[in-house]
Design a protein that fits this description.
By secondary structure, the protein is an alpha/beta fold. It is built from 15 helices and seven strands. Helix content is 50%, strand content 11%. The protein has a five-stranded parallel beta sheet with strand order 2-1-3-6-7, sandwiched between helices. The protein has a two-stranded antiparallel ribbon with strand order 4-5.
């Protein structure tokens, strides 16, 4: 007689196994130098062949960040087509990203920022999460739950994200069912995700800040770019003391380095997200359209004497 295994018992076995596989893969990626070498090789290919040869009349933009950049920024060809049609300008936007990226990834573990100094774009947008947020070790028990709940994990596994031999920084999953996926995030998921983070201090970016100075000296405009997450998650991260510290940090960067801060002011409903943190195809299109409008207002030469009114605010102010 075959013994039936209760569902609860199966889950007790299944969850640790999945967690062990995930942690093994995570540690492998973190410690394997080949991963960072690949990032360097593909970044240099992108910058050398796409950014460096651009004429002065083209606005070259690099967006640097994590999976928020991956899911939130449209393809460069779409930016180019839309900029020509709407603004009669040639705008090229390229994204360099790694899921769960932090500043150390781009300053220490890889040579991405050194390569950006070698082939500087006209505008470098840095995801605000890299500048302002870090994982809080005191609230790190979210991983297994998020792994099991995450539509983004499903999205990455089934979306065939990076074709072998391609430049991954342009690509967006081609399976339409995942590109238009609509998921209604919950308040509890937002709370769990929000508790991961705490707001940095200026000295926490001590290795990044010299790169900003050097890029600015080369004529690159630096933009701290806010990429929206689900409204409930934004409320948790940007509330109380966290929000005060966030505003102060952005203010300090604006004063010390003369960087810009671009914050999306629109309202995105839940059906614009694939989970609490990542935009789906619908949300990406709305956000990228707004981003193109911001870029199109910049002078063709960022060092131009043309002065534009400051259109950006901190947290809606």
């Amino acid at each position: 007689m075959i013994e039936e295994v209760p569902p609860l018992k199966i889950w007790k076995i299944f969850i640790p196994v999945i967690a062990a596989i995930y942690f093994t893969a995570f540690i492998y990626v973190k410690l394997n130098p080949k991963v960072y070498k690949e990032l360097d090789v593909k970044t240099e290919f992108l910058l050398k062949n796409y950014i460096a040869p651009m004429p002065d009349t083209t606005v070259s933009v690099v967006v640097l960040g994590s999976s928020l950049v991956e899911s939130g920024i449209d393809l460069s060809t779409n930016f180019r087509n839309e900029s020509n049609a709407k603004y009669n300008r040639d705008v090229r936007v390229y994204k360099i990203f790694r899921p769960n990226a932090d500043t150390k990834l781009f300053t220490h573990q890889s040579n991405v920022l050194d390569l950006l100094l070698k082939y500087p774009p006209k505008i470098l947008c840095i995801e605000d999460r890299l500048i302002a947020e870090e994982t809080d070790p005191a609230n790190s028990n979210w991983l297994i739950l998020r792994l099991l709940q995450s539509n983004y994990l499903n999205f990455r596994l089934h979306g065939n994200l990076i074709a072998k031999g391609s430049v991954p920084f342009q690509e967006f999953p081609q399976k339409k069912s995942y590109r238009i996926q609509k998921v209604i995030p919950t308040i509890s998921e937002s709370r769990e995700e929000g508790l991961r983070f705490k707001i940095k201090k200026m000295q926490d970016n001590m290795y990044l800040n010299p790169y900003l100075e050097q890029l600015i000296a080369k004529g690159t405009k630096i933009v701290i770019l806010h990429i929206p997450r689900y409204n409930e998650l934004e409320k948790i991260i940007h509330s109380g003391e966290n929000e005060a510290r966030y505003r102060e940090l952005i203010k300090t960067y604006k004063m010390k380095y003369n960087v810009d801060y671009w914050r999306y002011q629109g309202k995105l409903s839940a059906d614009n997200f694939m989970d609490v943190a990542h935009l789906n195809y619908k949300g990406m299109k709305k956000y990228s359209d707004w981003l193109l409008g911001e870029i199109a207002q910049e002078p063709i030469n960022p060092s131009s004497e043309i002065v534009y009114a400051d259109r950006r605010t901190i947290a809606g102010k």
